């Protein structure tokens, strides 16, 4: 990766870029604008530092000598800085700094309060660092547009986050317990990777209502902290036309927990209220406790390409997925109560030729009560069946699935025997498939 970055730097910046690599002589021309180093413990002499007076960007891929790091603070023209280890105490001297990259900075636990003096900073990446707290002064970075905090042990954000009106991209991780009140005022937000919900503090789901510029992926967790159908509707997901991927996640619950039975009706109500825009491409539902996944809006997701159901152990009925014209990928995982992949309406139809017209990948894991598969999958390319003990056979029509090039059958006791090479009852149905993986003796 470092070699690639160095090559890109040379290509884009030409003679204005100086690249320092292990085992090679350090030659720094006067007036160099961009510096990249992957040498551990890089030390720059006073003469080198004089040559670097006009620096615009610094990328340090190895540990840098602390004295050299402190001298970086004197480079008033510096706009881009990447450091993998520590942050100079005098970082606030870099008044023209626009991009500060501290991702994977494992020694970094906190930022100095003086960070607020970087008035021109618009991009701050702290992802995969060890940052445990953000200073309250960070809210005064009024030009900050991108704040990346994913995979950090960060439990909360500053309460005044609502003041960062120009923030367009906010990426956070699972360690964050809730968002601060007032997140609804950040109407310029285009990326909000996750909306964590608390049952006693922080922003409620209704603060999503007017964040209608959101695009890309959004995760909402955990949804048991949404009280009702009416509260779920306040998220106004239907008006978020640019949202491409939506994860709706509840918390897992132990089988003996009495809250499980109370959540059945609750989860079904909340799901009904979380209607997304019809432009959605990907939908994931995790740890849902309802007996039926049948929101009234599912039929309208005509642009949906991929759907995942994970650990929905009570679910007996699923929506009419076969009628979604662009659906290409389906994942079912740990669906203890699911018996059939078609809903009742689809089962009553005599003509199923218009079902699953675009489906290319069907992945089914740990569905112990599943007894049948759809019979018409004309575009299917990959079928994976794992731990489906009651699945007795494959549909006869599988012989006509000409695009099917991969079949995986693992820990499906009855089906594995039927698909045993050369001697299994279902072998003639599948012998045309190029890649077959089973745990049968053959």
From TrEMBL:
Annotated organism of origin: Ambrosia artemisiifolia (Common ragweed)
SUPFAM superfamilies, alphabetized: L domain-like (SSF52058)
InterPro entries linked: LRR_dom_sf, LRR_R13L1-DRL21
Domain R13L1/DRL21-like LRR repeat region, first and last residues per copy: 205-333
Name of protein: R13L1/DRL21-like LRR repeat region domain-containing protein
Classification lineage: Eukaryota, Viridiplantae, Streptophyta, Embryophyta, Tracheophyta
């Amino acid at each position: 990766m470092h070699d690639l970055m160095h090559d890109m730097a040379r290509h884009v910046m030409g003679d204005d870029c100086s690249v320092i690599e292990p085992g090679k002589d350090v030659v720094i021309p006067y007036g160099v604008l961009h510096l990249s180093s992957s040498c551990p413990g890089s030390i720059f002499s006073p003469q080198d530092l004089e040559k670097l007076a006009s620096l615009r960007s610094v990328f340090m891929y190895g540990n840098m000598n602390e004295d050299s790091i402190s001298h970086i603070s004197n480079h008033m023209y510096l706009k881009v800085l990447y450091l993998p280890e520590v942050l100079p105490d005098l970082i606030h001297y870099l008044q023209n700094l626009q991009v500060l990259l501290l991702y994977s900075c494992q020694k970094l636990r906190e930022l100095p309060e003086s960070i607020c003096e970087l008035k021109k900073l618009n991009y701050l990446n702290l992802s995969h660092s060890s940052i445990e707290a953000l200073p309250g002064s960070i809210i005064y970075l009024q030009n900050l547009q991108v704040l990346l905090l994913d995979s950090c042990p960060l439990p909360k954000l500053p309460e005044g986050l609502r003041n960062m009106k120009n923030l367009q991209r906010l990426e956070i991780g699972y360690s964050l317990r809730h968002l601060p009140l007032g997140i609804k005022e950040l109407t310029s937000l285009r990326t909000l990777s996750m909306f964590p919900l608390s049952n006693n503090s922080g922003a409620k789901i209704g603060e999503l209502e007017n964040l209608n510029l959101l695009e890309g992926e959004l995760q909402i967790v955990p949804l048991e902290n949404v009280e009702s159908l009416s509260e779920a509707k306040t998220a106004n997901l239907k008006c978020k036309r640019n949202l491409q991927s939506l994860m709706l996640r509840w918390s897992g619950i132990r089988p003996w927990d009495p809250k499980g039975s109370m959540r059945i009706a609750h989860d079904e109500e909340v799901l009904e209220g979380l209607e997304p825009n019809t432009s959605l491409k990907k939908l994931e539902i995790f740890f849902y406790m309802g007996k039926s996944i049948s929101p009234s809006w599912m039929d309208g997701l005509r642009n949906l390409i991929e759907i995942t159901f994970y650990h929905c152990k009570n679910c007996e009925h699923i929506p009419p997925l076969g009628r979604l014209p662009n659906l290409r990928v389906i994942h079912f995982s740990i669906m203890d109560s699911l018996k059939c992949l078609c809903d009742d309406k689809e089962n009553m139809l005599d003509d199923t030729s218009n079902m699953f017209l675009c489906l290319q990948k069907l992945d089914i894991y740990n569905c112990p009560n599943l007894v049948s598969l759809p019979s018409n999958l004309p575009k299917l390319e990959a079928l994976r069946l794992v731990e489906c003990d009651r699945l007795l056979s494959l549909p006869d029509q599988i012989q006509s699935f000409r695009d099917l090039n991969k079949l995986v059958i693992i820990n499906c006791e009855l089906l594995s025997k039927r698909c045993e090479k050369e001697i299994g009852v279902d072998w003639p149905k599948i012998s045309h498939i190029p890649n077959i993986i089973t745990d049968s003796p053959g």
